[in-house]
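Bench notes, afternoon.
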Amino acid sequence: MKKWSNEAWEAAADVYDHTLELPFVKSLAAGTLPKEKFLFYLRQDTLYLRRYFRVLANIASRLDNVAHADAFIRFAADGIAVEKALHGQYLGGVSPTDDEMSPTCALYTSTLLSQALEPVEVEAAAVLPCFWIYQKVGEHILATAKVTDSNPYKDWITTYADETFAASTRLAIEICDSLAAQASAAVRDRMTGIFRQCARLEWMFWESAWNLETWKI
């Protein structure tokens, strides 16, 4: 039987292709992204990550396999350290407040947090696009654009295209494949469905930053 991760990526491949065409991603690679849009993105990302890391920790608490649980605890701890450094570099240590959260950020984080009521396999699949798509986008930018020191976003790009992050992504994929291999067909289908949904939310997140999204009311 085909690995679940292959099925999941095929299900979301069109979303990833559209992600690469986003003005935000293209101008980030070129170093021409307006600073206000990048800072908006980082502030929303900070609010997102405060909840994302809680989801990672919750997944760890639900996993029976000790090695898998340990991996998710490390994902949360390592991610906090890296994001704190990057956000501190660009945001100057000024932390956003929850009332700044955009509609897309609210939708994405609510979707992730709600997976705590689903089987742990589904919750793990929901967080995987944040690993996998970020890593693939970072690698794509480095492979297709000349990211020089003159690009003000070089540190962000190289962080997500780094081998350490790639290794974490591979491990997260392997754990999801292991969970899927032991899951029922129905749960496996739900894993694929939430993976595609969260891939779409990743697209929306970048698009919302480009548009400096605000609440309409």
